[in-house]
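[User] Could I get a sequence and structure tokens?

[Assistant]
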Amino acid sequence: MFASTQEITAPAANNLFTLADNEAPARHVKLSVTRNALRTELDLLAEVVEAKQAYRLFSHLLLEARADRLRLRGVGLYNTLQCDVDAEVQQIGSVCLPAKKLAEIIRHLPAATIDLTSNAEAATLKCGDSRFKFKTLAADEFPALAEATETIATIPGEILLAMLRTVVFAASRTADNGRYALEGAQLSFSPAGLRVIATDGHRLLCVERADITRNEPVTLLLPRHSLPIILKLLSVAPGEVQLRRNDNKIVFQHGTRLLACTLLDGAFPDCEPILATEFQHELTLEGAMFQSAIQRMAVFGIEGTGTTFGVIKFHFAPDGSASRYEVQSHSPVGGEGHEEILPLTADSQAAVTIGFNGRYLLEFARAISAPSITIQYNDARTSVAISPATDDGCVVRYILMPCLV
């Protein structure tokens, strides 16, 4: 699709005039940059560039030597990332180098100055006693970063990082989701606050903050494939992140870094009825005890390669001779585990046993860290809400449908 129509032209005559230094061909680059600064950006860019690209140029990075900096850009199926690095530039220009190979080489170099020179055929990279030569590609057809002029919000990067990190595991891993677009996270700004939701149709994880608001409501569907690079971008350094949008792109500006992600099309399910569910019973467990009990019981829920899980059950029996609270595990091929737990508080009268997909509980236990966990439920056949206590301004609700076993 990028191939241009060939034209038959007359042989070009020799130039009458010699090009001045500042009119050198675009691929003629000469600069010096520190290895540590360059490695940080290449580690980010390596997350964007996909190993197998339909178009060869997209497995490369665009390097643009500007007046006082080196600009790098990488392109993937869903994401485009652009980063700036301070550099001493002797000759401006642009060139494309293989992304994965360049990142791997820089990763193994010592913390010293790197000298990069290139011409129309090749680029040479020197650092200490090491020297590497790359075949270059022209930068003419490398895609530009998406323009996005509509500002959605400017928020602390640490807040967005924490919210997305909490929900990422709950997003659907398969495209077979019927009429809903579930392979990602729903990011919503409204006068009521900021909300992030991820679901696969059997579980739902919602994180909310009331102190980040927007007068005009807006909802964005971030694809699952973009979430890891967004998390890595926000974790590199503290500071505010600005979100801007065009028709189908969302651009995150974090410092000098710009990340453009293609938004998901399609409808996200209406989660309001689920989030508005009222529960009759609840109990509170010590957080570390909850995590440890789930991780121990998951041993009997894992078989073979660890991709098939059995059932983990909560058994609540507040009355009668069997007055106890347990976490139970049942293997799909035989074997079971039991661990008695002692609630911090309990508000329930009837005995009930509720079973869950063991993977869903294990992933939640690994993702959260809280002093206490509140479990709300009605019966063994309807949804259950698990909420970790937080002190960072976020309200977290993990809603699960039980396994009817």
Summary: Confidence is low (pLDDT under 50) at residues 1-25. The helical segments are 35-48, 99-107, 157-167, 227-236, 272-275, 287-297, 358-367. The longest strand covers residues 79-86. The chain is about 15% helix and 40% strand.
